[in-house]
Amino acid sequence: MNNGKVAVVSGGSRGLGKAIVQTLLDEDYKVAAFSRSESDFINTLRESEKYRGRFYWDAADAADDAAMKQFVLQVYRKFSRIDGLVNNAGLNLDQLLPLTNDEDIDRILNLNIGSVIKLTRNVSRVMLKQNSGSIVNISSIIGSRGFKGTSVYSASKAALDGLTRSLARELGSKGIRVNSLAPGFVDTDMTKNMPEKQKSQIIRRTPMGRLGETDDMTGLVRFLLSPESSFMTGQTMAIDGGLTC
Ligand SMILES: NC(=O)c1ccc[n+]([C@@H]2O[C@H](COP(=O)([O-])OP(=O)(O)OC[C@H]3O[C@@H](n4cnc5c(N)ncnc54)[C@H](OP(=O)(O)O)[C@@H]3O)[C@@H](O)[C@H]2O)c1
């Protein structure tokens, strides 16, 4: 079905990235992922006969520009093309802005938007040679809605949606599409330390009456990477159980 198609996923070791990597492998993509550290999931894939020659992972920090260039080069050397890019790696820090230090502000902005811009630039150069590609930016409903304690994160995701819209205009005529997926609150490491009171408040306000699961998100990623969405670009789509409706 997607035999021969190649997808790059940033932060594929756990959480949403892990679910995206597994979904794309199940869809017959060749998948290249990176994260700073390994996980049981990554090690199992690397050792599996089933995915031999179809899965590539490297330890790399998205904030390291040279490592990112090297990663894209390696993927291109190995698979000779890149059809999909899922910018998934991201970081949130639940903290009021007046209490947030410079290092944390820089870390969030650098990972959630700075490194995404650079990785996307590097990958788009490969896609331009092919005149085709689909880029999916994992944003957040917090990019368009305010939530106390997430100002820097919110700013970074709003910027990401801006990148989606302008890049869609830049690359559309070259057959490359760019869209954002904006999840609501999803049950991953990112939300595991959220106070129970806050969690139940969110669940109460969510029409579907629960937090999201990573598997709630993967169908849209699969769709946005596929030709089924061939006329969709520059859009931000929320999957949040109706929280923002
Ligand atoms: N969970 C939610 O409720 C929620 C809601 C809306 C949007 N999102 C977005 O969804 C995306 C995934 O979130 P998640 O909940 O799955 O997070 P997560 O469980 O914390 O996983 C983050 C992934 O990114 C990798 N990563 C983090 N920093 C990195 C760096 N500097 N360089 C390379 N890889 C890095 C992590 O691996 P290492 O730590 O090993 O590097 C891990 O694989 C993020 O963009 C997030 O903003 C999440």
TrEMBL record:
Residues 5-189 form the Ketoreductase domain. SUPFAM superfamilies: NAD(P)-binding Rossmann-fold domains. InterPro entries: KR_dom, NAD(P)-bd_dom_sf, Sc_DH/Rdtase_CS, SDR_fam. The keyword GTP-binding does not apply. SMART domains: PKS_KR. GO terms for biological process: fatty acid biosynthetic process. It comes from the Bacteria. Keywords: Oxidoreductase. Its EC number is 1.1.1.100. GO terms for molecular function: 3-oxoacyl-[acyl-carrier-protein] reductase (NADPH) activity; quinone binding. PANTHER family: 3-OXOACYL-[ACYL-CARRIER-PROTEIN] REDUCTASE, SHORT-CHAIN DEHYDROGENASES/REDUCTASES FAMILY MEMBER. Belongs to the short-chain dehydrogenases/reductases (SDR) family. This is 3-oxoacyl-(Acyl carrier protein) reductase. It comes from Bacillus amyloliquefaciens (Bacillus velezensis).
